[in-house]
From TrEMBL:
Every DUF4082 domain range: 49-190
Protein name: DUF4082 domain-containing protein
Signal sequence extent: 1-24
Gene3D superfamilies according to UniProt: Glycosidases (3.20.20.80)
Pfam families named among the record's database cross-references: DUF4082
Keyword vocabulary terms for this entry: Signal
Keyword Magnesium appears in the UniProt entry: no
Species of the source: Kitasatospora cystarginea
UniProt biased composition (Low complexity): 40-52
Origin: domain of life: Bacteria
Length: 610
């Protein structure tokens, strides 16, 4: 059964993503509660996504399953599976608890030849938040959908609402059985229909701007109408356009410098330049970078002597100094994409460095920047068992990766959709903490890489969609790579010197700040079903208004993106007028409305009277 060719991780990451768990707002026309106590729309993990391998070449009768959890209590009303050619015969579906006890059973009827099939349980099953359950079905003729390596990086947030898939399983034989075995972290495209029984206010891990009250230096970020927007590793004193680059970045809407090129060299006056331009600084450089040529724990040899940051802050006044960057990509088992890299930093070592830094200065938070391990990239799966330990050591969780143009990643693993997956993944690993996601610019990989479509760089539309996808899925700040790796040289400030990239940065930053009140608000529950390109969406309430924010992305099957039609399901069957960001008026009837998207197009919808 399990003699298999390996498929790309992107077979999973290309799924339609939607919102994080939520809280429901008021509605001008509330409907009576659904039978059984459900208060939110029915959601699934996979939506209408189609697997890259819909029918694996295995004719053996097999039970296939998915392990999942929910952040909200609710009702599992049925089980789903994706049917490919050859997956014939009578199918049975079931739900089990973590101990393998069967909780419900259903037979599939009126199946289509291919595509998603769903069976309804005679009685809904009430599940508890945080517990692990398994849904599965019997494929009597085999030929089931399969995506090997889908869970290599650990749990992945999929689909709509509060559900998270944490692994796949199988059981051989012609009788439905608990799918307890696993192989190559494969996902088998099994799903559930789920309706939450608890609404709005239950979001125990949602970030709020009150978080910044812990430190006097982060007072500027308590304003919920603004987002931190950073740029990576620059020297703000560099002359530019008659003045300096600190003011040039500020003119593009950047408000934070993340890392400093020569920190902590006092003579450069970098913090003074940032202060003059109104920029905050997350200071740090290579203090905990891996030592060249070393491996294992010895590669991460930095100690408190390498972190004289508090003393430097005192010398420089520090009005702009908002925090410290502690380490860069401690989560990658092959740093810099090389097979002889240092290996992952031991989590206890990272925690020790963080403690020593906080002892030097308790008035500022510590940022740790993670790479493609936490991001879920194909180049380096990292050390998944350490991820929660890593994020526990950080006050600010930052994630960098080249989701569109990484030259070391297979084409099927790249695309705008990876930004949605990364933000959701980081949010799950760092409950209640700020998550800042790095963005690449159109000039970053020009001449040095290729996007899935064969282009040499990310397009402005892709970059804008990547920012929206990250924010929709839980990012609470953005950071920019300004570097270019064109030809044989690196230009650290290329995004300022390339007019197209500068214009893109300005536009994306304006978008982010225009809707900052919503991005900073707890996510609410919304369902989304799409035709065409995937659409990822969230429902947020801010300033007495409720809005759906959504963006069309792409998938391994649609690497250039494309048009999409999305149908949104609102809480409590809300009905009324909806105002779009481009001046149109739509109508939600019995809790749903539909709209079209061009390739990589974002939309913001405001619910009238909400």
């Amino acid at each position: 059964m399990h003699s298999r060719s390996r498929s790309a991780l992107a077979a999973l990451l290309g799924l339609t993503l939607a919102t994080l768990p939520a809280c429901t707002g008021s509605s001008p026309r509330p409907a009576p509660p659904s039978p059984g106590g459900a208060v939110g729309p029915t959601t699934t993990m996979f939506g209408s996504a189609e697997p890259a391998t819909p029918a694996f070449a295995d004719p053996a009768a097999t039970t296939l399953g998915v392990r999942f959890t929910s952040t909200l209590p609710g009702l599992v009303t049925g089980v789903r599976f994706y049917k490919g050619p050859g997956n014939t015969g009578s199918h049975l579906g079931a739900l089990w608890d973590a101990h393998g006890r069967q909780l419900a059973l259903a037979a599939f009827a009126d199946e289509s030849q291919t595509g998603w099939q769903q069976a309804k349980f005679a009685e809904p099953v009430r599940i508890a938040p945080g517990a692990t359950y398994t849904a599965g079905y019997l494929a009597p003729s085999g030929h089931y959908a399969a995506a090997p390596n889908a869970f290599d990086g650990g749990p992945v947030t999929l689909g709509s609402g509060p559900l998270t898939a944490v692994g796949g399983g199988f059981a051989q034989g012609g009788t439905l059985a608990f799918p307890a075995q696993s192989h190559e972290n494969t996902d088998y495209y099994v799903d559930v229909a789920f309706a939450p029984t608890e609404s709005a206010s239950h979001v125990p891990d949602a970030f709020t701007t009150a978080y910044w009250s812990k430190w006097p230096a982060t007072e500027r970020w308590k304003d919920s109408s603004k987002l931190p927007i950073g740029v990576w590793m620059q020297d703000p004193t560099t002359p530019f356009d008659g003045f300096d680059e600190a003011h040039a970045f500020a003119a593009l809407g950047v408000n934070t410098l993340v890392g400093l090129w020569d920190w902590p060299e006092e003579e450069h006056g970098q913090i003074r330049a940032a202060t003059a331009a109104g920029l905050a600084v997350i200071a740090g450089g290579g203090a905990c970078a891996p030592a060249p040529g070393a491996t294992g724990a010895a590669a991460w040899a930095c100690d408190t002597a390498d972190l004289p940051l508090a003393a430097q802050a005192a010398k420089l006044g520090g009005a702009a100094l908002a925090g410290y960057q502690l380490a860069d990509e401690p989560d990658m088992n092959v740093p810099n994409g090389t097979p002889t890299g240092a290996g992952c930093m031991p989590p206890e070592k990272l925690a020790g460095f963080a403690r020593s830094l906080r002892q030097q200065d308790r008035t500022r938070p510590v940022l740790v920047n993670f790479g493609s391990g936490v991001a879920g990239g194909a180049r380096s799966p990292g050390c998944p068992t350490d991820f929660s330990g890593y994020t526990a050591a950080a006050d600010i969780v930052s994630v960098d990766f080249y989701g569109i143009t990484d030259p070391s990643s297979p084409a099927r693993t790249k695309g705008v959709h990876t930004y949605a997956a990364t933000a959701a993944r980081a949010r799950a690993l760092a409950p209640g903490k700020p998550v800042w996601v790095f963005l690449e610019t159109p000039v970053q990989m020009l001449g040095g890489s290729a996007t899935p479509s064969g282009a040499k760089a990310a397009s402005p539309a892709q970059v804008r969609a990547a920012a929206w996808a990250a924010l929709v899925n839980g990012a609470t700040g953005l950071s920019w790579f300004c570097h270019s790796f064109a030809a044989q040289s690196q230009q650290v400030d290329a995004c300022l010197r390339d007019a197209g990239s500068a214009a893109t940065i300005r536009k994306v930053n304006a978008d982010a700040q225009a809707y900052a009140g919503y991005w900073n608000a707890p996510p609410l529950l919304v369902g989304v079903a799409t035709q065409g390109a995937p659409v990822t969406a969230t429902l947020r309430k801010a300033g007495g208004r409720t809005a759906v924010l959504a963006v069309a992305t792409d998938s391994p099957e649609l690497p250039r993106g494309g048009p999409a039609t999305a149908t949104f399901t609102l809480p409590d069957r809300w009905s009324g007028k909806i105002r779009t960001d481009d001046g149109r008026t739509l109508t939600a009837t019995d809790g749903t409305f539909t709209d079209r998207f061009d390739a990589y197009q974002p939309h913001a919808y405001t619910l009238d009277g909400s």
